Amino acid sequence: MGTIGVNTATGTLSARLLDDVPGLAAEMAVRIMEQEPMYRDPAVIDPAELERSCRENVVYILTQLAGLPAPDTVAARTTGSLRADQGIPIDAVLQAFRVGSRFLWEVLVDRADEDTRDSLLPAAADIWAVSDRLAVDVTDAYRATAAARAQIDRQVREAVLDALLVGSSDHSPSWDSAHLLRLPQEGRFVVVAAECPGPGADALPAVESLLREENIASAWRLAADMQEGVVSLRPRFGQHQLADLLRTVARGRVGISGSYGRLVDTPVALREARLACRTVTPGETDVGVFEDEPVGVLLAGSPDAARNVARRVLGRVLDLPIADRRQLLETTRVWLAEGGSTMAAARRLHLHRNGVRYRLNRLEELTGRQLSAPADAADVHIALESVRILGLG
User: Fold this and answer.
1) How many angstroms separate the Cα of 132 from the Cα of each of 29, 56, 68, 70?
2) Pairwise CA distance, residues 383 & 393, whole Å
3) By CB neighbour count within 10 A (0-12 exposed, 13-18 middle, 19+ buried), where does 135 fall?
4) Confidence class of residue 6 from pLDDT cuts 50, 70 and 90?
5) If you placed Cys at 231, which of 151, 218, 225, 302 could pair as Cys (CB 3.0 to 4.6 Å)?
6) By C-alpha distance, which of 335, 253, 320, 322 is closest to 289?
7) The pTM is what?
C-alpha cells in the first residue's frame, strides 16, 4: 500500500516519533482502556495484547505520515478478526480506534514546535485518512470473521438440535446440549412444529428474535417442509402464551407439544408437536396445542382409522353435493359446540332456529344417528373431527 503526501515538517515529526513507539503504544492502550469499558476486562482482552496491537497501529500510522514504506495492514486485519473472536462489539472496536487516533493526533500537536504545529492543520485530513484506512481494514476483517463464526455457530447448533430431536444415542449430555443451544439448564420446555408455506421457506419468520424480545430462549431448524424448534418456557409464559405469540407470525399450521423438564424427552415432544400441528384444519393458519386436543391428536395419529370413522358415520353426508354437505357439517359442528342449544347455534349461523332443526334432522336421517343420544352424538363429533383434520369436508 502506498504512502500519502504530507508536508515535510509533519513527515519529519512523524519519523522522530517512531523512536518512541513503545512508550506511545503503552499510553495509547491506557487511554483506550480508560475510555472504552469493553477493553478494561483482562479476561476479555489481555492488556499486553492490546498494547501490542497499539504498537503495530502506531508504527503503521507514523510510517505513513513520515513518507516511509509502510507495513501491510495484515496486523490490523488480524486485530479485527481477534476482536470478533473475543466477542467485542464492532462499535466498541471502532471507538477504540477513534480514541487511539485522537491520542496520536494530540501527541503530534504536543510534540510539534510552533512552525510544525502550523503545518499540522493542513495535514489533518491526510492524518485522519491514514487512521480511517486502518479502521476500514479492521472492520472488513471483523465482519468476515463474525460472519464465518456465526455460520459455524449456526451449523453446530443445528447439528446438536438435530441430534436431540431425532434422539441420537451419541449426542452430547443434555446439560452440554443446553449450553450449545443457549437454552437454560433447568425448567420446562416444549417443541414446536410448523408447516412451511413452500420448500425451505420459514413457517415462523424471525421467530427466534421474536421470542428473545420476550426473554424466551429457543433453538430452531429448518427443513424442506417443516420448521421445528425447542422453546424454553418460563413462569407466566406457558404453552398458551406461546401459541398466542406464534399466531402473530405463523404462515400455516403450527403445533406445540406437551411440556417437559428434560431435553432427553425431546424426541417424544417432537412427535407430539407434529401431531398437534396436524390437528389444525388443513389450509388454515392456526396453532394447535397437544394437551388441548385429545380427540384431534388420536385422529391425527391414526389417519386411516379416522378416514374409516368419517366414512362409516358420515358416508351419505359426504356423498352430497359440496354446498349441501358443507351446510350440514357446519351446522352440526356449531350445534355441538354450543352444547346442543338450537337457539345459540341459530344466532351463530344467522339462521332461524327452524332452519337449524331442519338441517340437524336431515343429518340424523342420513347417518342413522340421533343427536339427542350421547353415544350417537359422540360418534358424530368424532366423525366431524376426522373430516376436518383430513380435509374431507
Assistant:
1) 18, 15, 18, 15
2) 11
3) buried
4) low
5) 218
6) 253
7) 0.64
DSSP state for residue 6 in the 8-state scheme: -
Q: 53: burial class by Cβ within 10 Å (0-12, 13-18, 19+)?
A: buried
73 pLDDT tier (thresholds 50, 70, 90): low
Residue 107 cell numbers, joined: 501527541
- Distance from C-alpha of 317 to C-alpha of 297, rounded to nearest angstrom: 24
Distance, in Å, from the CA atom of 385 to the CA atom of 393, rounded to the nearest integer, reads 10
pLDDT at 170 exceeding the cut of 60: no
CA distance 140 to 311: 65
Separation between Cα atoms, residue 257 and residue 27, nearest integer Å: 58
User: Residue 350: left if φ>0, alpha if ψ -120 to 50, beta else—which one?
Assistant: left
DSSP per residue, 327-363: HHHHHHHHHHHTTT-HHHHHHHHT--HHHHHHHHHHH
Query: Each residue of 258-294: pLDDT tens digit?
Result: 999 988 889 999 999 999 999 999 999 999 999 999 9
**Residues 210, 192: Cα–Cα separation, whole Å:** 14
Q: What are phi and psi of 162, to 5 degrees?
A: -60, -45
Q: What pLDDT was estimated at residue 1?
A: 44
Over 80: is that where the pLDDT of 319 sits?
Answer: yes
Question: In the β-sheet with 218-222, what is the strand arrangement from edge to edge?
Answer: 218-222, 226-232, 189-195, 253-256, 286-289
Query: Which burial class, exposed, middle or buried, applies to 49 when counting CB atoms under 10 A from its CB (0-12, 13-18, 19+)?
Result: middle
pLDDT score at 312: 95
- Answer whether residue 149 shows pLDDT above 50: yes
Per the listing, cell 443451544 goes with 181
Nearest to 231 by CA among 256, 267, 249, 264: 256
- As a whole number, mean pLDDT of residues 198-215 equals 92
Place of cell 479485527: 80
Whether the pLDDT of residue 155 is over 80: the answer is no
d(CA 38, CA 86): 11
Give the chain's length. Answer: 393
**Quick count: other Cβ atoms within 10 Å of Cβ 225?**
13
Q: Which residues pair with 234 in a beta bridge?
A: 237
CB-based burial label for 258 (10 Å; 0-12, 13-18, 19+): middle
